[in-house]
Every structure is written in C-alpha cells, then in structure tokens.
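Fold this sequence, please.
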Amino acid sequence: MIISKIKEKCEWLADNNCHVSICYDAIPNYISNTVLPELKPSVWNEDWHYIGSDEDTLAYIIALDSINFGSGYFSCLKKPAGVSSGYVTVATALKNRFNQKPMTAKDLAELTIDDCALIFDQDITEPEIFDLMKMFKTALNETGEHIKHYYEGSFSKFVLSANKSVDKLVEQLSKIPNFKDISIYQNQEIPIYKRAQITAGDISTIFKNQGIGHFYDIGELTIFADNVVPHVLRYDGILQYSRDLVARIDKCEELKPHSDEEIALRACSIHAVEKIVEELHKTGHKNILTIDVDHWLWARGHETYYMDKKRHITKTIYY
C-alpha cells in the first residue's frame, strides 16, 4: 500500500532528523483552540476551477495537478489584478482555456512552451518564467502521452481503473514521471507523492466523493506537503525548526529539492498532521478527514499574518 508507506517513512524521518521537530504536546490545545473553531468542510472553488462533463472535469483536474507546482517561481509569475496566489493564477488560466474548449489527452501531449505561455499569459523572455513554462510543457506532455497510450485517451477510464481507491490512483499516477515524488534521506527512500495525492483529493472534492469521484479509502490520504503547510505549522507552534534552518529561510536562501532540510520540512508536516487527525478521531471527531485539515491549513497560510513571514523556497516540480 503506497500511502501507508508514505506515512511510515515520514514518521521514521520525523524521529531521525535534526532540522525539524514536532511539538506533540502542543497538539491537544491546538485542536481545541484553533483547529475545531475554524475548520470548515472542503469545497471546490468554482471561481478558480473548471467544471464540465465528467470526462472534461477529470481532464481539467489531472492537467491542473500535473502542473500544481512552481511555488519557487511564483514571485516572478504574472498574476491578474487582485490575485496574490500563484496557484489561483494557474488554476484560473487553465479554467479559462477549458471554457474555450476542453483539452484532450492528445492536446496535452502536443503542447509547446509557446502554447503554455499563451494559456497562462506569461512572458517567456524572462528566464525563470521560460523555465517554469518549459516544466509545465514537459509535465503536461507526459500526462497526455500516458493517458493516450494506456487509457485510449480517456481520463474517465484512467480514474475508473483505480477501482474507487485513492491508494490505487496514487500508485497509477506515480508511473507518470512528473508525479514520481520521492527523496532519499540517510539511504532511506522517502515517498511523498504530493501531487498524486492531491489529484485524488481534488477528484473526491469536486464530485463530493460520489459517482466517478467516489473513493472508499479517501480518509487514507495524507496532507499535500508543500511549502505552505509546514510554514503555518511552524508559526502555529506545532513544528520547530533548527537555528540554522531558520537563518537560511530568513535570508531567503533557496533549499535545494531533495536536500535533507527540504525533505524534513515536508515529511514532518505530514506526520504532524497525521498526529493531529489521530487526536481529532480519538476525541470523537471521526468525520474530519486529513484533506479537510490540509485545505484549512493551505487557506490559513494565505492570511496576511502568514504571508508577511518568510517561508522556505524550493524550485521543484513537486510543489
């Protein structure tokens, strides 16, 4: 089971690193004073996201989560007036493209860098934006080719072949190169699969876990570890960073993908939220899913208090 391995390895890393620690004793008060009073059910924001037929909606979600990365480039990203989020910028631009005409697997497989620049309204004469659009093109090409080759170009067939299991869907997505989110820490393989997991979570959310979007094991998903969730958990007193890591973040020093510090941040945030959800369930709140907590933490991270503070920067295709 791929998701149980994620949890096992993240717990191991949380106990065996010197960069990030979890303040387990702070969890009960955090739940009663912050999480429960503020937590809301996960909803699909139609202002940012496309909804069409089942096939077209799945094509949109899988395409979007193929490029649900680039946080290390978002300071350079051209954003619409009044929008501060890089994710919202990308999601809305792709929605607008699907509103014109839904994209097929063949369309994704044939996209060029210029096509991506046009869809996302970006200036590729800027070197960092060129790099980001090149990564978008590669990821979308890989996903389109995979769906074309193995599932006759049908996103519905791809999702249905997971037999209503998020674990199986994550496993299937992990076969696409741009979704293969694994790091090595002290010779141990640490799988995260952030974008594969968020794809399953997004499909469940938009379909309200019904019909083609129903997964019997939706509660197994972990959080979608990026640079927002650990940042919020740090300032909410659940994660504690080493002095050296704090200094590097404060200096806006880039953390390299798969570096010890970077993987510790992601793995510890996953395990911390697993313990938060475990405590929620112990205290009778068994209807709360990990993805509900993730969505809340992500939204919380875009409040002014958190946006005004420096978070870690990593240029990666995984978030």
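The two ends are 23 Å apart (CA to CA). The first helix runs from residue 2 to 15.
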